[in-house]
Amino acid sequence: MSPNSAYEGAGAWRRKNGNCIEALRKALERLGYLKCYHMMSASVENPPDCLMWHDALIAKYNGVGEFGRKEWDQLLGDCQAVCDWPACAFAKELIEAYPNAKIILTTRDVDSWHASVMKTVWWRVSDPEHRFISNFSWAASMYYPMLNKFFQTFFRGDFLTKGKQVYEDHVAEVRSLVPPERLLEYKISDGWGPLCEFLGEEVPDTPFPRGNDMADFFQRCRTRNRHQMMNATLQALTIGGAILATGLAATIMFKRFSR
């Protein structure tokens, strides 16, 4: 797939839905869409992507700068599919940028979705430990501002009370933007059948993938916090040691030549 056809495969539009979206990503990769962009592509695999996502959010919601096909190709050009957030905030822009994309709109009971996000990503953006680490960690300093900006803009500044309405509006918007022949409304419980038929792929002879559970999400986040804090501390010690060594060397030289 060429760099300019990132969405010729499948675009899966849905804000964070825990293990469901992770399962869909694994399923798309099993079907051969090996470069499937996901939230973790930015938060873990390549944190500098968060800077571009932040620029995209500012361009869309604050009207500062431009973010069009050129920028999307730069960010997603080597991908065959995209799912999860922050991409879901740009359903309209990406559908217009890649008009041949097939769109998978995963759906779920809005109340259970809201409860799931409250216990996962909303917890992450509200996590004081994560906020603190973002002041020191290279990766967290790029990821946390983008995560915070996403919730402030996409969820209209109030996820707790407006999140469900944003969900409903998002589903309605995608339905209005995509012709029926290019849109699959899908539940993870539907399994391989509808997904493979929609994408024109053979049904694999393996069970449909399972996503990570909530306990795993918490463990991964806590482990990442610890690693980022350790890396920041090690970097500070290294820089501090180098400054101390330079200072000692300068003092010794000064004393030697001032005799």
Automatic annotation (TrEMBL):
SUPFAM superfamilies: P-loop containing nucleoside triphosphate hydrolases (SSF52540). The keyword Cell inner membrane does not apply. The chain crosses the membrane at residues 232-254. It comes from the Eukaryota. The keyword DNA-binding does not apply. Keywords: Membrane, Transmembrane, Transmembrane helix. This is NAD dependent epimerase/dehydratase. It comes from Aspergillus tanneri.
